[in-house]
Amino acid sequence: MTPVLVLDLHVVAERLHEFNQSFPGVTCYYAxxxxxxxxxxxxxxxxxxxxDVASTPEIDLCLAAGAxxxxxxxxxxxKKARDIAYAYARGxxxxxxxxxxxLEKLAEHAPxxxxxxxxxxxxxxxxxxxxxxxxxxxxxxxxLLRRALESGLDPVGVCFHVGSQQLDPTRWEAxxxxxxxxxxxxxxxxxxxxxxxxxxxxxxxxxxPMSAYGExxxxxxxxxxxxxxxxxxxxxxxxxxADAGVLRTEIVLVSxxxxxxxxxxxxIGRFGxxxxxxxxxxRYRMATALDGGPEGPAVLAGPTCDSAxxxxxxxxxTLPLGLTSGDHVDILSAxxxxxxxxxxxxxxxxxxxxxxxxxxxxx
Length: 363
Hints:
The chain is built from 9 helices and 18 strands. By secondary structure, it is α/β, with parallel strands linked by helices. It has 2 domains: about 10-240, TIM Barrel; about 245-355, Beta Barrel (Lyase, Ornithine Decarboxylase, Chain A, domain 1), CATH 2.40.37. Strands 1, 12, 13, 14, 15, 16, 17 and 18 form an 8-stranded mixed beta sheet that branches. Strands 4-3-2-11-10-8-6-5 form an 8-stranded parallel beta sheet. Strands 7-9 form a two-stranded antiparallel sheet. The protein starts with a strand and ends in a 6-residue tail after the last strand. The relative contact order is 0.16.
């Protein structure tokens, strides 16, 4: 039955090892939102990862998988007061904020907790920008950290995010520099610098190797935080799980009568897990049984009756001309932000099933 996402947990373990090799001394806070499948979380617990969580269900998921509360960072800067209290009651002691109002909630419902101020950073160079919604201007962060101290909280540092699927390793330079200025201004020693996510997966086109990111990021830290003795952290999500997933889909219909173009309708679309095709931002690699034969352009669309359910039209894919209804199209590097983005049952189409392969996963 399709659609089905097959996840190779061995690849997840390999990617975590690659991260640890490329970022020595940097704590990995896995961004659970990338793929919250329990077997992935359980594996990463066994491998010693920490976790970036955005909600109380993600907290419960990680704790149920065996994660210690002190390995969780509640990274969502906009939290309900009762969710802060719940997280605190369950032992979470590290929270992110970016405004005075959130700070007030933390002081009341998580007294004495460690807090990190998120500063704004540009998402230039990222295929999936994240720069508009969260993050205070760096010039406001020093005052917020001092205010946190006055409120009885423990301000430990600064965090930022340079956008998801960031293709330019130099984009960490500016926010690392800004974080150093924040600490110099507020007079509080930096004990945690969380440099967010953004490390890429293997989609269409070229991406620098993870080692290039490690060299660029750690070089920035060494220059702007000389002698830094605190904790360095990052929040990889996509780069750990995307390449572990293959999403098998079935062709529902092939039509060449529409706009003089060949349209291929799959049994999964933007509402079933391919939300990142919005604006044709994430262009997945694809494979079929007919690869190597005659090919031609095709518009790709999902199965629902919503006219927005078109995946790739402005830059059509080149796919085998012999494809027809019932054939399979495998979407590669689909382990991140697919099942977690899928709607519950829009138009009656259920989210993809998930199969985990745990071959030879070494701890």
